[in-house]
Design goal:
Length: 127
Amino acid sequence: MKRQGATTPETPAAASSSQVAARSFIECATLCTAWKTCRWFDFHQLHQRCCMADRPIDCWGSETSETRSSFDKLTDTCYSTEPCPKQAVVEDSRYCVFMQRVSNSVLFNRTWAEYESGFGNSENWWM
């Protein structure tokens, strides 16, 4: 997937991916949740950019991860060229991130007991 140029979060229906300015991974996550069609995001610390897409992208990471994504190597587009492990490095800590959102029909503001027992459906999840 390759998108020329950037769009803003206010126009998500017009693009399959978008890249906008952001100051942190948390701000990028917040931008994604505000974007009705956002199903994937990644924050690029060096360029202070948030890459968002309407479907998961196969490869992403950060400058310090062993498997760097195409997004880490560029400044003005978001795209993926090869599969790699889903890893993120936030404040020098490595995390494995799993995300799959089919729709916004499942709400994740739940109690810990609900998370322990499970909820929603097997096709719409975010951990």
